[in-house]
Amino acid sequence: MPTIREVAARAGVSPATVSRVMKGEVPVNASTRARVEAAIEAMGYAPNAFARSLASNRLGGVGLVISHLAGPFMGRVMMTLEATLRRANMSLLVASGGGEVERERDAVDFLCGRRCDGLIVHADALSDATLSALAKTTPLIVFNRRVPEIDAHCIYLDNEYGSYLATRHLLDQGHRNMACLTGPLRQQDAADRLAGFHRALREWGIDADEPAIIEGDFSEGSGERGMAELLAHERPFTGLVAGNDDMALGAMSVLRARGYSVPRDMSLVGYDNEACARHAVPGLTTVHAPLEEMAQAAAERLLKLLAGASLPPSLPFTPTLIERGTVGPAKA
């Protein structure tokens, strides 16, 4: 690969002149420009990306802080982010925070230390104040979470409404004895989903203290453990709202092992509409979270920030109910 000095020597000019021709920012004599362009074409010269970044103080990279690397949720998000950014000639760098404050801070520091042009942060443990302060110094988009102080920088889902839809669907089928398996309630999305569950019950005049509520961690294993605990309580219920699809499928596996039929004996609804929900037997009724649309919006908002544009107010994305085979009418 030829260097800029070799191109300059072939064209009979200085390296600075070659640089000016390529940037197009400073007028260059027409004959000189022609010699430089001919030398570039003949030698197949392409400027080094790192050298360009030193001149512009930008590396063309976006940092993504995520809570966990595993699971289809973040896979869908990362694929869409990468594709959207690549169309803008930018690359995606990823660091995991593991849902712990210090690790999430380390992930932010790591990506900033790599001179990322901006950050997209999916963080469970970092406080609103920390994220608000970070947005003052770094182009930042917060994903799947609303921080009121920097609302325009947030891409988030109306999780309260999504869980409300799931619960109302069970109530519409005649279920009155209900249970709920939640994600970690310190996380905003899990807390909002529990709030939607309670709102639907209130509308039907059901005491919020009546349903059995078990807190899990969004994993299939916690769905299994939660369902086993619910059955051990011997509190009757026929309708279950799960915090996500993995927890719903874990609950289904325990029901199947205990001889329950879904939906004849028990109806349940998941959340997220992952591929596993479509392939389950019976197919899992669930709440669709438009993750790809959210990820694209996050990337596009960050690109606007990097271009110096002001951001319009952010609006939550709206989930929808996907009816499949795990909800049936309550037994008379």
Total helices: the number is: 13
CATH topology of the largest domain: Rossmann fold
Strand order of the largest sheet: 2-1-3-4-5
| Distance linking N and C termini | 78 Å
Classified in CATH, the superfamily of the largest domain is Response regulator
Give the topology string: H per helix, E per strand: HHHHEHEHEHEEHEHEHEHEHEHE
User: Can you identify the CATH class of the largest domain?
Assistant: Alpha Beta
Briefly say what this structure is.
The protein is α/β, with parallel strands linked by helices and 332 residues long.
Give an account of the 3D structure.
With 332 residues, the protein is an alpha/beta fold. It has 3 domains: 4-47, lambda repressor-like DNA-binding domains (434 Repressor (Amino-terminal Domain), Orthogonal Bundle); 61-155, 3-Layer(aba) Sandwich (Rossmann fold), CATH 3.40.50.2300; 159-290, 3-Layer(aba) Sandwich (Rossmann fold), CATH 3.40.50.2300. Helices cover 47% and strands 13% of the residues. The protein is built from 13 helices and 11 strands. It has a 5-stranded parallel sheet with strand order 2-1-3-4-5, sandwiched between helices. Helix 1 (4-11) crosses helix 3, helix 5 packs parallel to helix 13 (291-306) and helix 8 packs parallel to helix 9. It is elongated and about 90 Å long. The N and C termini lie far apart (78 Å). The model is unreliable at 49-57 (pLDDT under 50).
